[in-house]
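Final report, Chapter 2: Outcomes

The project's central promise was a pipeline that accepts a single protein chain and returns its three-dimensional structure in a standardized token representation, suitable for archiving and comparison. That pipeline is now operational. To close this chapter, we reproduce one record exactly as it appears in the project archive, with the input sequence first and the structure output second.
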Amino acid sequence: MKFYHSIQLNSVSNVTHAFTTRYSGNLAFHVNDNPLHVQINHERLAKELGFKKESLVHMKQIHSNLVHIVNEDDNFHMPRTCDALITNKRNSPLMVMVADCAPILFYDDKQKVIAVAHAGRAGAFTNIVKNVLDSFHLEFTSKIENIVVSIGANIGVCCYEVGQEIYEEAKDLKLGYAVQNRSNSYYLDINKIIMTQLLACGIKKENIEFSGECTCCKKDKYFSYRAQRVTGRFAGVIMLK
């Protein structure tokens, strides 16, 4: 399987993580793929990263800002309806699946807490990263300045054209700074919103890392809903060892 990794998280000895690619295979069960093939892809991923497939916690993602605190009832067969997961449990890998939205991995090395979040337009507009960081602080007494954040490949402002109504919504939410007007068309910069929100919450700039790759531009490397509509999902995964 082909992965790419966060430079920040690569330097942490007690964390396993990866961002998968199209070459890793589709990991979603809801996109009309053969369920057996999806199971095989998950089994390969678990073997490559050194965890038990049954222990993987993933989500039924609904483009919300809901954060679930992982508990003993969570496992591969019981995905929660939410768009972020957080835990301090060891050997409990967390997964976020995407095909243009931003997959975000969080880690606090002091309190040993990890999280994942799914941030598309809806997640960015409703500030899911703030809800995740609030959970770090309130549930695990994390200090925001100790958290590192890695954002995987997602659709860039180069390709994310939106309509007038989305532009108006962005302005109403004071996010107009993240919309570019090019040739009488509007283009949304999700990464700019995420960066602004992380900094506003107190994350240090040097603790924020972006992949910088656009899934739509690189549809041969990543699954992209904007480029192909009917497509699979790649993922961000993180686990405390």
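Archive annotation: The mean pLDDT is 96.
This record, like all others produced under the grant, will remain available to the consortium after the project formally closes.
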